[in-house]
Amino acid sequence: MFNIILFGPPGSGKGTQSELLIKKYGLVHISTGDLLRKEKAAKTPLGLEAEALMSKGQLVPDEVVVGMISSALDANPEAKGFLFDGFPRTEAQSQALDNLLKLKKSEIGVVLALDVNEEELIKRLVNRGFTSGRSDDANPEVQKKRQEVYKNETLPVATYYNKFNKVVHIKGEGTVEEIFSALCSEIDKRLS
Ligand code: AP5
Ligand code: MG
Predict the structure, then answer these.
(1) Is the pLDDT of residue 90 over 90?
(2) Pocket flag, ligand 1, residue 68 (CB < 6 Å)
(3) Percentage of the chain modeled with pLDDT above 70
C-alpha cells in the first residue's frame, strides 16, 4: 500500500490535484472536508455540529474526524493506497493516523506540500465562492480565519512529518497541469 498526504493551506489546490492523482494511481481519495459536507447535506447530527464550526473557519474536533477516517479505512480493505486531502490537520490527527495505519501494517509514504502565496490563495477562494455554495467560501473574514487556523494548528503537521523526512515541497503556483506533473514525478520516484 502506498499512502500519500496532500498537504497545503486552504485554496492551495488539494482537491483539484487529488482528482487527477487518484485516477492516475488508482488510490482511494479521503477528503475530510468532503466527508463533512456530505454529513451536512444529509443533516446528520454530526453534520449539523460540524457546519457550525466550518462556517466560522474553525476546525472540527479531532475525535470526530479521526472517527471518520477510521471508518473510511475499514470500508476500503482492498485499497492499493489512500490519498489524504485536508487531513491530518493537527499534530494529534497525524499521530492518530499513523497509529491507524500501523494497525493495517502500513504507513505514510510521502507528504506532498503545496506552497502557494497567501494573496493567490485568497484570490482563488474568493473566485470559488461565486460558484461553490460553500458557506466558508463567500466571507472574507472566514477566509482569513481559515488561513490563520492553518498557520497555528495545521503547520505543525508538516513539522511532525519532517522529523521522519517525509515532506516534499512542491510549487503550487502555475497551471494545474504543471503542478500535477511535479507531484507525479515525486510519487514516481518513490514507487520505482
Ligand atoms: P476543506 O474542505 O479541507 O477545505 P480547505 O483545506 O480549507 O481547502 P479547500 O478545499 O478550500 O482548498 P483546496 O486546497 O482543496 O483547493 P481547491 O483544489 O479547491 O475543509 C473545510 C473545513 O472543514 C475546514 O475549515 C474545517 O472546518 C473542516 N475540516 C476539514 N477537514 C478537517 C480536519 N481534518 N480536521 C478538522 N476540521 C476539518 O482549489 C481552490 C480553488 O482554486 C478552486 O476554485 C480551483 O479551481 C482553483 N485552482 C486550483 N488549482 C489552481 C491553479 N493551479 N491555478 C489557479 N487556480 C487553481
Ligand atoms: Mg478541498
Answers:
(1) yes
(2) no
(3) 100
- 8 Cβ contact list (under 8 Å, min separation 6): 14, 113, 114, 115, 116, 172
**Average pLDDT of the chain, as a whole number:** 96
- Decide which of 14 and 192 is more confident: 14
Q: What is the pLDDT of residue 135?
A: 83
- Whole-angstrom Cα distance, residue 176 to residue 153? 27
CATH class, domain 3-117+156-191, is alpha beta
Any ligand 1 atom below 6 A from CB of 10:
yes
Contact 54, 143 (CB under 8 A): no
53 CB near ligand 1 (under 6 Å): yes
Q: Where along the chain do its domains lie?
A: 3-117+156-191
pTM for the model stands at 0.97
Ligand 2 ion: residues within 5 Å (CB)? 15
Amino acid letter at 104?
K
As a whole number of angstroms, the distance between CA 21 and CA 140 comes to 30
C-alpha of residue 164 to centroid of ligand 1, in Å: 25
Is 90 exceeded by the pLDDT of residue 153? yes
Q: Indicate whether residue 179 lines ligand 1 (CB < 6 A).
A: yes
